[in-house]
Design goal:
The protein has 496 residues and is mostly helical. The protein has two domains: 242 residues, Orthogonal Bundle (Arp2/3 complex 21 kDa subunit ARPC3); 213 residues, Hypothetical protein af1432 (Orthogonal Bundle), CATH 1.10.3210. It contains 22 helices and two strands. Strands 1-2 form a two-stranded antiparallel ribbon. Strand 1 and strand 2 form a beta hairpin. Helix 8 packs antiparallel against helix 9. The radius of gyration is 30 Å and the shape is elongated.
Length: 496
């Protein structure tokens, strides 16, 4: 187990209280399930089954405790965030309610149990989803076993079969949908998961083929319905959880990089030069992320938004200027303050527009604490002395590999854009210089990027930038008329 810092320990204590509050909410839901299942006789049921209710309470407390210990060992940072805890238990509670409704008013086999696994997969990650799927399957099992939620003649056999199928279907769908990139693909995963589930149901119910084939067919049909409903319900609930807990899924990342996204539309209209620069940086960042095994979708999205802070004063940045440059009329100190403020402005703009914090963090960190060389040099030439801190970005330095990738890609694109000779050798020299300077200035001290990964990023950028900024063939100055005959141009006259 990793050593937990004191600040994190305090957060964990608060997280423990949140866990207990979630446990109380879960018990309230279970109590309502027992009441709804028998509106007239629920009181007598509880009195007659006190030991079962106590066993249920202890079992749920134990399961919630397992979740706490799992996150404590596997992801203490996530555990320290109350939003992450509330996300996990909101998924559990909402999924429990939906499964109860289907199981109570339709059939136990129709419950969309794989829905929880799909939501956990896309809203957390595969490793967490596998563990949480086991917890949820066991939770549904103890609720079925110790309450009156599922009225059936052959209660125990159906409950055990339901537990096994819930666990298997959830586990299979986690691996099946792990690489899904579209919402349509998520729906298809619900269809594909039905194949192994139906095979298992058929094996469980072989004796009923000859004795009660109607029940056999209905069991298969309900399980198919369960799988398809799981995908549909997950698709419907995903945007709600994305927005409520500000989570990034592959679906939301693709929506954020759509040219119809509000901030990108503004960037395209108000700062077209910055927008075009961001497109190229996004392409470079995505390629670099793939090269070192990072989240390419996240890198591309972060790069799209890394310069949105320039929307506050777009005309103050070179790529959006024409013949007039506002910095010719103001002091270098004021110019530097305007330039460096775009990182903070971008962070605030993204947070105010409810974009994920990780995207906003990249906007704030992509220049780290680098000096603004041009205006520092200008101040030295004007006054002979200047404090470098007044001409440096405010930071913080990159905290993640994604922020480091965007920082390097941003610098490399800007530097090579101004180069007259963009041969691979020249580009390699510039990219190496950019990375070495940032290493020397401690820009990567707080993220876990390695020298090997920096080398891979450099090589990737050289290859990509040599393709983006390649030389073109100079076309001859010939024009053609409607009769497709060459027409002499003024340029030809000048050469003559």
């Amino acid at each position: 187990m990793n050593i937990i810092p004191p600040k994190t320990k305090k957060k964990l204590v608060k997280s423990g209280l949140v866990f207990f509050a979630c446990y109380l909410v879960m018990m309230l839901v279970v109590f309502l399930i027992m009441v709804i299942s028998d509106l007239k006789g629920w009181q007598s049921y509880i009195v007659q089954n006190v030991s079962e209710v106590m066993a249920l309470s202890v079992s749920i407390f134990f399961l919630f405790g397992l979740v706490f210990w799992y996150y404590l060992f596997e992801d203490a940072d996530a555990l320290a965030s109350r939003r992450n805890i509330l996300l996990v238990f909101s998924l559990i509670i909402v999924s429990t309610i939906i499964c109860f409704v289907f199981g109570r008013f339709l059939h136990i086999d129709s419950r969309p149990v794989a829905m929880f696994a799909l939501l956990a997969l896309f809203l957390t990650n595969r490793r967490h989803a596998l563990f949480l799927n086991f917890i949820f399957s066991f939770l549904m099992f103890v609720i079925d076993l110790f309450t009156n939620a599922i009225p059936t003649a052959d209660l125990n056999s159906e409950i055990y079969a339901s537990f096994l199928l819930s666990f298997i279907s959830g586990t299979v769908v986690i691996f099946l949908a792990g690489d899904v990139k579209t919402r349509g693909g998520l729906l298809l995963s619900g269809v594909f998961i039905a194949v192994p589930v139906v095979l298992i149901v058929m094996l469980f119910n072989i004796p009923e083929i000859t004795t009660d084939w109607i029940d056999y067919v209905s069991a298969v049909g309900f399980r198919i319905l369960s799988c398809v409903t799981s995908a549909i319900a997950a698709l419907a609930l995903m945007p709600i959880f994305e927005r409520a807990f500000n989570r990034l899924t592959v679906f939301r990342l693709r929506e954020l990089t759509s040219t119809d996204a509000a901030l990108l539309v503004r960037l395209k209209k108000e700062a077209p030069g910055t927008f075009n620069h961001s497109l190229i940086v996004a392409q470079l960042a995505e390629t670099c992320a793939v090269a070192i095994g990072e989240n390419a979708e996240l890198a591309r999205t972060a790069a799209y938004y890394h310069d949105v802070g320039k929307l506050k004063q777009p005309d103050c940045f070179t790529e959006n200027q024409g013949d007039y440059n506002v910095h010719d009329e103001i002091t270098p100190e004021l110019s530097a303050d305007i330039i460096r403020s775009h990182t903070k402005d971008g962070y605030e703009l993204l947070i105010n527009n409810h974009l994920p914090k990780i995207i906003a963090d990249v906007a704030r960190e992509h220049h780290g604490t680098l000096p603004i060389k041009y205006f520092y040099d200008k101040a030295i030439r004007y006054s002979g002395d200047a404090d470098l801190k007044d001409f440096s970005y405010l930071g913080p330095v990159p905290q993640t590999k994604i922020a480091a990738i965007v920082m390097i890609s941003d610098g490399a694109e800007a530097a090579t854009r101004a180069m007259p000779d963009r041969s691979p050798e020249k580009v390699e020299k510039v990219c190496r210089s950019i990375i070495e300077e940032r290493v020397d200035l401690g820009q990567f001290d707080e993220c876990d990027i390695t020298l090997k990964e920096l080398t891979i990023i450099k090589e990737t950028l050289v290859e990509a930038l040599s393709g983006v900024h390649h030389h073109r063939v100079q076309y001859p100055a010939i024009q053609f008329g409607r009769d497709r005959q060459a027409v002499k141009t003024e340029e030809d006259d000048a050469h003559a």
